[in-house]
Amino acid sequence: QVQLVESGGGLVQAGGSLRLSCAASRSIFSINAMGWYRQAPGKEREFVAVITSAGMSSYTDSVKGRFTISRDNAKNTVYLQMNSLKPEDTAVYLCHAIVAGRGYWGQGTQVTVSS
How does DSSP classify residue 74? Predict the structure, then answer.
């Protein structure tokens, strides 16, 4: 199993940037896919980005060109660099990992983008 702890959220004006971090309690070297999801008030949780152990990444269409996911295996950490933020990016951002076929979630970090 693994514990995931997110950080880096906050309040930012539209057009600004934030970098989220997801620190894992164990080595992520062997974790094939780690990703970010988000959930806005009154909405369902949605996929944002994922990165594989080989460094391949995928994004939801609404963040392509603005967000970048990366991983540092030495620090057991996954990052989400968010640029050109928009008010519609406001949500709780959650880190996700699949270990031995089971999904694990962090507690989330709030991102609020003001217009």
Answer: G
